[in-house]
Automatic annotation (TrEMBL):
Protein family: Belongs to the ATP-dependent AMP-binding enzyme family.
Pfam families (alphabetical): ACAS_N, AMP-binding, AMP-binding_C
CDD domains linked to this entry: ACS
Official protein name in the record: Acetyl-coenzyme A synthetase
Domain named AMP-dependent synthetase/ligase: residues: 102-487
Keyword field: Acetylation, ATP-binding, Ligase, Magnesium, Metal-binding, Nucleotide-binding
Residues of the Acetyl-coenzyme A synthetase N-terminal domain: 39-94
EC number: 6.2.1.1
GO MF term list: acetate-CoA ligase activity
SUPFAM superfamilies, alphabetized: Acetyl-CoA synthetase-like
Binding site for Mg(2+): V557, H559, V562
Species: Undibacterium rivi
Positions with a binding annotation for CoA: R204, G205, G206, K207, T324, S543
AMP-binding enzyme C-terminal domain location: 551-632
């Protein structure tokens, strides 16, 4: 790191990505990992004795009911196993361990609802709620290994539901509340759920949105015979139908349950959860995570990346429907005994000062959000001085984080100066649903920061950049991001599809044992810092949400009017990437008002098929799509058209070059 210059942040040129922000001295002095020497020493330790490094951390950081003897089992690679003969329970590690440590009366969750009502729950109360609900689930006959789908709003009850599943060894699969009945159905069937936990409604930005109605619809779509019960949390009291013998209220289920529930001791390899994410085919994949290795990494990254201290008030703004909400709301913060904020709603309601108002009100010390939210709040602050962060007391903050998509240097600088007031490090955390927790991120008390770079891998994470044949590339040359050694929190398999797991993440071309992240990256020549250059597969990142282009295409062609569709991403100032769909209808190409009207219909159709997050921002109609003579759609050209740029590439292999002119204009 000796090559790094240490410039101050006084310059106004926000494009100067080469500027470097060293950790504030006071922060570094008290940090869990203080200074780059400490970081390098940990990396060295991992390199010298990989298994010993992880074993020590697993013994120190987790409560084991029966200690493990085997650390890493590679015999069935890439189906790696960690600490498999050890017995533990994730909920016990998050709750009981805290009661034993004297944290019983400490606030675990500060929940703020969409309307601003605040509920505080201590560790003792959370333990009580989780045990009662776990007993309730048991009374329904749900046992270890059963899968339970959770389709809930952001709430204390959502966290309780996940923890209760973990307590009894049931594997949860949380489905984001914005997914449609069809998407929910697909996941219920694929995972083979025996129960669905939901709410009557959810509330977002003052609007009541149905959840139970969507569950009812999903369960009528067929093949759901395994689902014996639907448990409903009463969020709003909105009208719902109860199916006798199947549906019951959460409050009725727990009413007479004991608040003592002996945890189910499971192997560290027991699947804690399955979370669906988009890939390059039309079908979402169920990413299966373990118990022991996963929780270990949730704990370590809370300590290393977030430098969590007993006095912190930690706030991750994610939804429990995404992996960030799993690791940095439901599990990580609780396992380290933190006080955390959980919020319901959206950052722009009742106004775009919601986040800053909540930081001030609850004295948040660590704030973790997505670049999309930052970018939209920059716009809002520019437009309305009343919601500008300068209007709020943000002095409680000591650390900021970013997750889910690349953060552009402009947004980074605004975040640093306006939210962090120039003295809070920003941890730009690169990771994925599959990785379980952070992979590459600055350490706030050690790593000099460079806007837009996730800097370096965490100790024990063997990231590298390779070419298409799997050979290492030198710094300065962009390539494919890989991880060369298994790590405890890694994906274990794709639920029900081990072949897809092997082929997708550990391809034979790379020797079958190296994890392929699905992203491109480049390392800085001097510093070795990593910058993510974006997905190398057909996956888009819209507002930090992963969307498969094929998923959206399949939804579009399912519409009776659509003959063919190709979906590409185009850069967007707020959402990072936006969805642009090129569509050929079965009838003639529409123009003018008719085109607008059909585009609206198709957008709503996609929202119904997948969920509102998958709605294309733009739809262009053509008589055909640009294809090679062998009939392959040339997406490369569509990307250029979507951006509004002129095609300079060779189009001689194109069957129908004239079509490019037609598709050039946004309609
Ligand atoms: O492309 C990378 C991008 O988000 C993808 C993972 O998406 P998902 O599984 O939904 O998990 C999101 C929350 C961890 C990655 O393959 N991504 C995530 N974090 C960053 C990022 N790209 C750049 N910088 C990041 N910090």
């Amino acid at each position: 790191m000796s090559d790094l210059n240490t410039a101050q942040n006084s310059a106004s040129d926000v494009k100067a990505e080469s500027r470097i922000f060293p950790p504030p001295a006071a922060f570094a002095a008290n940090a869990t990992i203080s200074g780059m020497d400490a970081y390098h020493a940990m990396c060295k330790e991992a390199e010298t004795d990989y298994e010993g490094f992880w074993a020590k951390l697993a013994r120190e950081n987790l409560h084991w009911h029966k200690p493990f003897e085997t650390v890493l089992d590679e015999t069935d690679a890439p189906f790696y196993k960690w600490f498999e003969d050890g017995l533990m329970n994730v909920s016990y590690n998050c709750l009981d361990v805290n009661l034993q440590k004297g944290n019983g009366d400490k606030v675990a969750v500060i929940f703020e609802a969409d309307g601003g009502e605040v509920t505080k729950v201590t560790y003792k109360e959370l333990h009580h709620k989780v045990c009662q609900f776990a007993n309730g689930l048991k009374s329904l006959g749900i046992t270890k290994g059963d899968r339970v789908v959770i389709y809930m709003p952001m709430s204390v009850e959502g966290v309780v539901a996940m923890q209760a599943c973990a307590r009894i060894g049931a594997t949860h699969s949380v489905v984001f509340g914005g997914f449609s009945a069809k998407s929910l159905h697909e996941r219920i069937v694929d995972v083979g759920a025996v129960a669905v936990i939901t709410a009557d409604e959810q509330v977002r930005g003052g609007k009541h949105l149905p959840l139970k109605v969507i569950v009812d619809e999903a369960l009528t779509l067929g093949d759901c015979e395994k689902v014996k019960n639907v448990v409903i949390y009463k969020r709003t009291g909105g009208a719902i139908n109860l199916t006798a013998g199947r549906d019951l209220w959460m409050h009725d289920l727990v009413a007479n349950q004991s608040d003592v529930c002996e945890p189910e001791w499971v192997s560290a390899e027991h699947p804690l959860f399955i979370l669906y994410t988009s890939g390059s085919t039309g079908k979402p994949k169920g990413v299966q995570h373990s118990s022991g290795g996963y929780l270990l990494w949730a704990i370590l990254t809370m300590k290393w990346t977030f430098d969590i201290k007993p006095s912190d008030v930690f706030w991750c703004t994610a939804d429990i429907g995404w992996v960030t909400g799993h690791t940095y709301i439901t599990y990580g913060p609780l396992a380290v005994g933190a006080t955390e904020i959980v919020f319901e709603g959206i950052p722009t309601f009742p106004n775009a000062g919601r986040f800053w108002n909540m930081v001030e009100k609850h004295k948040a010390t660590i704030f973790y959000t997505a670049p999309t939210a930052i970018r939209s709040l920059i716009k809002a602050a520019d437009a309305d001085a009343n919601v500008h962060p300068a209007k709020f007391d943000l002095s409680s903050l000591r650390l900021l984080g970013s997750v889910g998509e690349p953060i552009n240097p402009e947004a980074w600088m605004w975040y640093y100066n306006n939210i962090g007031r120039g003295n809070c490090p920003i941890v730009d955390t690169f990771w994925q649903t599959e990785t379980g927790g952070h992979m590459m991120t600055p350490l706030p008390g050690a790593t000099p920061l460079v806007p837009g770079s996730c800097t370096l891998p965490l100790p024990g994470i063997m990231s590298a950049i390779v070419d298409e044949t799997g050979h290492d590339l030198p710094n300065g040359q962009g390539g494919i991001l890989v991880v060369k050694r298994p790590w405890p929190a890694m994906i274990r398999t794709i639920w029900g599809d081990p072949e897809r797991f092997k082929k997708g993440y550990f391809p034979e071309e790379f020797g079958g044992k190296i994890y392929l992240a699905g992203d491109g990256a480049i390392r800085n020549k001097d510093t070795g810092y990593f910058t993510i250059t974006g997905r190398i597969d057909d996956v888009l990142n819209v507002s930090g949400h992963r969307m498969g282009t094929m998923e959206i295409e399949s939804a579009l062609v399912a519409h009776p009017l659509v003959a063919e569709a190709a979906v590409v991403g185009k850069p967007d100032d707020t959402t990072g990437e936006a969805i642009c769909a090129f569509v050929v209808l079965k009838r003639s190409r529409p123009i003018g008002d008719e085109a607008k009207q059909i585009a609206t219909e198709l957008r709503n159709w996609v929202a119904k098929e997948i969920g509102p997050i998958a709605k294309p921002k733009e739809i262009r109609f053509g008589d055909n799509l640009p294809k090679t003579r062998s009939g392959k759609i040339m997406r490369r050209l569509l990307r250029v058209l979507a951006k509004g740029e002129t095609i300079t590439q060779d189009v001689s292999t194109l069957e129908n070059p004239a079509i490019l002119d037609q598709l050039k204009e946004a309609q």
